[in-house]
Specification:
14 strands; about 25% helix; 7 helices; alpha/beta
């Protein structure tokens, strides 16, 4: 597990030290640096001019990870082959699910892990075994009672699409474009525990998008169970970035990191005190 990460001169992250727990939630207003943290965790950086603090390429970008086993990994940019570098053997999966991608056709065949935007949702569903598929569909139908089943239909020589059966009229099936946003988002999260191989670290940007507040608890439960693992799957460290006060109802204060921008130079600051986390958490329960 990653205990802490330090960013230097990466975008708005001039000098940021971030401690991590098995489940860590980043909160803060738009532009507070949450997405930059997630992309830094995925070491997905092009080292373009815009990736440097204040566009100053004379100050190298530096990333440092500290692991639970005491190991440290440091990386300085620019380098020539970022993709060939391994973060102490840890694999990182980043998700920023997009509804248009979830609704589109997927490649025909099977995929064992969701793509960043979810455009292979049908292919991942196709990879499930019978018992796994029954479990996922059962959970989805419990959460969305008007859905009676989920199936697959080939839509072209190399493409396939999900189908959703109406609960009350078994012969009626809907395409992804005919169902609510929440159906597709929930299905994507319900598939995460069945990925193979499982990532060591999962980053999720705005999991609340497309979901009514009452379903955020279900998504939070899925993500928390990933951090525990099972007899067959190792635990996954999860890092979430959110704008949702409601999501904070389902996490602990010590799991929250508050991001803000300095009024002096615009650099990101991280506040992990429980007092401030409690204040943010209380906003979720304040009457509107």
């Amino acid at each position: 597990m990653i205990r802490a990460v330090r960013f230097e001169n990466f975008r708005c992250l001039k000098e940021v030290d971030l401690s991590l727990t098995p489940l860590t939630v980043l909160v803060g207003p738009s532009g507070s640096g949450k997405t930059s943290v997630l992309e830094g965790m995925q070491y997905r950086m092009s080292c373009e001019h815009s990736d440097y603090w204040r566009l100053d390429t004379t100050q190298p970008i530096s990333l440092q990870w500290k692991f639970a086993d005491g190991n440290h990994v440091s990386l300085r940019f620019p380098i020539t082959e970022l993709d060939s570098w391994s973060m102490h053997g840890h694999s990182v999966q980043g998700l920023t699910l997009e509804l248009s991608a979830l609704r589109g056709d997927s490649p025909l065949g099977r995929a064992t892990a969701l793509s960043p935007n979810g455009d292979n949702l049908a292919s991942v569903f196709a990879s499930l075994g019978p018992a796994q598929r029954e479990g996922v569909v059962g959970q989805l139908c419990r959460l969305v009672p008007h859905v009676g089943d989920v199936g697959l239909q080939q839509t072209g020589p190399r493409s396939q699409q999900l189908r959703f059966r109406d609960r009350w009229q078994p012969g009626l099936w809907f395409t992804p474009w005919q169902v609510a946003d929440s159906v597709l988002i929930l299905l994507a999260f319900l598939l995460l525990p069945y990925q193979s191989p499982m990532p060591d670290v999962l980053t999720v940007d705005e999991p609340e998008r497309g979901l009514p507040p009452r379903m955020l608890g279900e998504v939070a439960s899925v993500l928390r169970r990933l951090t525990i693992g099972t007899q067959d799957t190792p635990p996954v460290q999860v890092l979430i970035a959110t704008h949702s006060y409601e999501l904070l109802e389902y996490v602990q204060p010590e799991e929250v990191r508050l991001l803000s921008r300095s009024t002096e130079d615009g650099s990101v600051r991280v506040n992990a005190t429980q007092q401030d986390a409690q204040e943010w958490r209380s906003r979720a329960t304040e009457p509107s």
